[in-house]
Write a sequence for this structure.
């Protein structure tokens, strides 16, 4: 069995590094580096998958793209005891599904749009205002949820926390958690996990 993760620096692929470390699955990490001028990934990623994005997972000759798909694949294959994801009949399962997909969906998209519009110099006007409002809505939603739940899927740490971690760490780095005590407490808690610290050592 060969499990290989193609990891791009300064990218969301660090979430899959973290998940692999939480799972304790033997794997190889292939490091890729962004172009310093364009901030885009290298062309060699497109030789592995047509979209040329990271993360990419290779397992026994199969290449899988998309963070959520990779996470679900790894959990189905290597978390048969449901340590990191609730069973379908668990009351926490719907919440888990929502957050594991929110990490690339509705609560993530406003931050990505803000990044792209900022790079284009669009920092004022109706589009910028709409994006800022959506970011605030997402951050408030996360704060409200973590005010009443220890982790994203409920009382126990799960893969949903791994996938949500990237954007919350980015928000913290930008000073966005100053008035989000529950989110800040969650981040402090997960950053203390050995697998999180090991992920940082791999390189982000």
């Amino acid at each position: 069995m060969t499990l290989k993760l193609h990891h791009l620096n300064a990218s969301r692929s660090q979430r899959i590094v973290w998940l692999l470390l939480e799972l304790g699955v033997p794997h190889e990490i292939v490091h890729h580096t962004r172009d310093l001028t364009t901030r885009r990934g290298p062309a060699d990623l497109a030789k592995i998958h047509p979209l040329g994005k990271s993360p990419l997972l290779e397992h026994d000759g199969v290449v899988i793209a998309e963070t959520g798909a990779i996470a679900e694949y790894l959990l189905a294959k290597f978390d048969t005891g449901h340590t990191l994801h609730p069973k379908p009949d668990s009351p926490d399962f719907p919440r888990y599904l929502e957050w594991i997909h929110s990490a690339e969906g509705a609560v993530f998209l406003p931050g990505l749009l803000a990044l792209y519009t900022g790079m284009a110099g669009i920092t004022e006007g109706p589009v910028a205002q709409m994006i800022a409002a959506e970011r605030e809505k997402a951050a408030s939603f996360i704060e409200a949820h973590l005010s009443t739940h220890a982790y994203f899927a409920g009382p126990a740490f799960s893969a949903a926390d791994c996938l949500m971690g990237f954007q919350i760490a980015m928000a913290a780095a930008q000073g966005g958690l100053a008035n989000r005590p529950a989110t800040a407490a969650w981040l402090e808690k997960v950053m203390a996990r050995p697998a999180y610290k090991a992920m940082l050592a791999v390189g982000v």
Notes: The longest strand covers residues 3-8. The chain has a mean pLDDT of 90. DSSP finds eight helices and four strands in the chain.
